[in-house]
């Protein structure tokens, strides 16, 4: 029996696992007992991950191509497939310019895959038209961190969980969606009954079962609630004035903003009791360690950035940041959404959290990439790509490890856009993807346990994934 270390590919917790293979190639797995992330624990998804590897009934095995839109896909060699992709992209770029092509990637990609595609289009093709399905979930947190902290850098780790005594969980159901991380919160509260958990959610979820306070707000009133908690903290004199004076700007403006509504007025808007808002402020204010946690409930909103900012401000005014047991903690949904952000796999970013619109940042990356020239204008975002395909501004798109017909907010627009595109490449593992219907070229990809690389989890911990089994057919990483 051989053993390999890897990382679960289901969510952003990033649980480390050990995969065992027997003589017949059958796989078993267990949580890595030495992992600082999951300490040997696995949820039901992680425990059954190896079955997805062994079940190859829906796998794409060979490159396929159609020479015209009304022809069926036919099996071709990798050489023919790549020659066709290169020839069509080259022709479109020559005729319409580099911004006529785009790459749409995924938080399922390994960090190295993100980096290569990012360098290809930004450093070689000369366009910034690369974006990821992580745009649909984490881009609000990215901008929220930049506006409040100056960097898209999560300042909290899982080790802080055992050092905190108050948790504010909003726009998230980690008991179901980040279960192993939440097990640590549960265990911490069980060992320390005075630990307080406040859950903000219009619904009653499994996470609410652990709440000391459940703020069951009216949908869309998150910012009003955050401001009310901020006002209550100020009224109770539970802000960290020294931290505010030494480390923040704009406090007086913030104070004016949160005082536009009384706590009682805000409570009526939110549909909660004002007493619960004051108790929330009390728990936060007297904490030695306070962690705010959130995910898609805040991020996937037309005012998602403002929701992020209003929440992070609660950590800032109380000084609960940059010290053990404290900080804002956005929980990534996909296993490598964070890795993509780190290597600049978004239309407005460059590797190492550099800003594409900053001339000095562009110059640094240009030198590192060997003297290439990076365009100063940000590329099309995920939704903008499909709008541009629909209008004809964008001619070709290369889709990697994501199904926009399921994940984009306007699936009908995506369908119409792909039907109008001059050329569509789909790099995918499953033959069940709806997007294949519109593909001119299909490339079979390697899946989890079939390739080597790294992923970065919610706390920015980088994990190495070893290849365990070869990809089926002619699939490649």
Topology:
Blueprint: E1 2-7, E2 16-21, E3 27-31, H1 44-47, H2 49-54, E4 64-65, E5 74-75, H3 78-96, E6 101-105, H4 111-125, E7 130-132, H5 139-149, E8 166-170, H6 174-177, H7 179-191, E9 196-200, E10 213-215, H8 222-235, H9 241-247, H10 251-258, H11 263-270, H12 274-285, E11 290-294, H13 296-299, H14 304-317, E12 327-330, H15 337-342, E13 349-350, E14 354-355, H16 359-368, H17 382-391, E15 396-400, H18 404-407, H19 411-420, E16 423-428, E17 441-444, E18 453-456, E19 462-465
Parallel strand pairs: 6-7, 6-15, 8-9, 8-11, 9-10, 11-12, 15-16, 16-17
Antiparallel strand pairs: 1-2, 2-3, 4-5, 4-17, 13-14, 18-19
Helix pairs in contact: 5-14, 8-11, 8-12, 8-14, 17-19
* DSSP, total strands: 19
The structural class is alpha/beta
Mean pLDDT: 96
What name is given to the CATH topology of the largest domain? Dimethylsulfoxide Reductase, domain 2
Q: What's the helix count? A: 19
Identify the strand order in the major beta sheet: 5-4-17-16-15-6-7
Specify the biggest β-sheet: 7 strands, mixed
Calculate Rg over CA atoms.
24 Å
Principal-axis shape equals: globular
**In percent, how helical is the residue content?**
25-40%
The CATH class name of the largest domain reads Alpha Beta
The gist of it:
With about 475 residues, this protein is an alpha/beta fold. Helices cover about 40% and strands about 15% of the residues.
Structure in words:
This protein is an alpha/beta fold. It has three domains: 1-55 and 448-477, Phosphorylase Kinase, domain 1; 64-137 and 336-445, Rossmann fold (3-Layer(aba) Sandwich); 139-330, 3-Layer(aba) Sandwich (Dimethylsulfoxide Reductase, domain 2), CATH 3.40.228. 38% of the residues lie in helices and 16% in strands. The protein is built from 19 helices and 19 strands. The chain has helices at residues 44-47, 49-54, 78-96, 111-125, 139-149, 174-177, 179-191, 222-235, 241-247, 251-258, 263-270, 274-285, 296-299, 304-317, 337-342, 359-368, 382-391, 404-407, 411-420, and strands at 2-7, 16-21, 27-31, 64-65, 74-75, 101-105, 130-132, 166-170, 196-200, 213-215, 290-294, 327-330, 349-350, 354-355, 396-400, 423-428, 441-444, 453-456, 462-465. The strands form five sheets. Strands 5-4-17-16-15-6-7 form a seven-stranded mixed β-sheet, with helices on both faces. A five-stranded parallel β-sheet has the order 10-9-8-11-12. Strands 1-2-3 form a three-stranded antiparallel β-sheet. Helix 4 (111-125) links the parallel strand 6 (101-105) and strand 7. Helix 8 runs antiparallel to helix 11 (263-270), helix 8 (222-235) crosses helix 12 and helix 8 (222-235) runs parallel beside helix 14 (304-317). The longest helix has 19 residues, at 78-96. The protein is globular, with a radius of gyration of 24 Å.
